[in-house]
Structure formats: structure tokens, C-alpha cells
Amino acid sequence: MKRLAYGLLVSLVTAAGSAGAQTGQRAGETVVTDAFVIYELNATGHGDIDVAIAFLERDGRVVICAATAAPLSGTLRQIMRAIRVSEGSTTILRGLQWAPNYPARSDLVGRAADCRMTRHPAPEAPDFGIALTRSEF
């Protein structure tokens, strides 16, 4: 797999993502390294979720590898389903509930991250984003 260069934008949005996105088929696992970008999403009233994420290319398609750190709760599962990953204005993956969750951000580096293949072709000039769609939890 080849790492894609990217600019990752984290935002909190109120609208749902694109209807055409797929959850993605399992594409193996890797280890979270310093090359992953770790972002903090704030789920107001539910705490912070740290997301370690990397975007790779396999067979011309985008592969997303991720692990999270957040307090466990039933609401966390709903919040993880509400996260959307996009490239440009297109949602390419819905939900990170498949990503392993660890108790603290300090636990992320060196731990396992699961990967998912998307149907989205690897872009020449990537513009990846991650958003928490508040309307879904």
C-alpha cells in the first residue's frame, strides 16, 4: 500500500453525509505510528474522541486505517457511526465503529489500527476530511 499525501480537515457538521458511501470491506490492519494524524473530535456533552487515521492507496483505491481513543459507552457506538470521512465534497466512508478503541490517546501509537477499503479512486491531489455529523446521535 502507498501512503497518500493529504490535508485533513476536522469539523463538526449538522447535515448528514452523502447517501452513496459504503462502510467498506476489511482491508487488514496495521500499527498506529507517528505517521498517522491524530485528531480530536468533541462530541458535546459526551466527551472527546481521538481519531488516529491514515489514508493509503491499494489497487488504485483509497484505504482508510484508523484507531480511536474514547471513553466506552453506548453513546460512543452511536457517535462512531456518525463520523464521516470525505474526499473533497464526497463522503467515501461512513462510520468508524469498526476501528479498535483504546482507553487513552497515549495508548494509540504502537497499537493496532484496522483498515477499510473504499470504492473511491485514489485522487491525484487528495483533500480528505473527517466530520462528526451531530444530527445522528
Helix content: under 10%
Strand content: over 45%
Radius of gyration: 14 Å
Overall pLDDT score: 77
Domains (count): 1
- Largest sheet report: 7 strands, mixed
Low-confidence stretches: 4-23
Amino- and carboxy-terminal Cα gap: 34 Å
Count every beta strand, where a strand is a DSSP E run of 2 or more residues: 11
Question: Pairing-aware structural class of the strands and helices?
Answer: mainly beta
* H/E series: EEEEEEHEEEEE
Number of helices: 1
Based on CA inertia axes, which overall geometry fits?
Answer: globular
Summarize this structure as a short list of keywords or feature phrases.
7% helix, mainly beta, 51% strand, 11 strands, seven-stranded mixed beta sheet, four-stranded mixed beta sheet, single chain, 1 helix, 137 residues
Topology:
Layout: E1 2-3, E2 9-13, E3 25-31, E4 37-43, E5 47-58, E6 61-69, H1 74-82, E7 83-87, E8 90-94, E9 101-102, E10 112-121, E11 128-133
Parallel strand pairs: 2-11, 6-9
Antiparallel strand pairs: 1-5, 3-10, 4-5, 5-6, 6-10, 7-8, 7-11
Summarize the structure.
With 137 residues, the chain is mainly beta. Helices cover 7% and strands 51% of the residues. The chain has one domain (2-136).
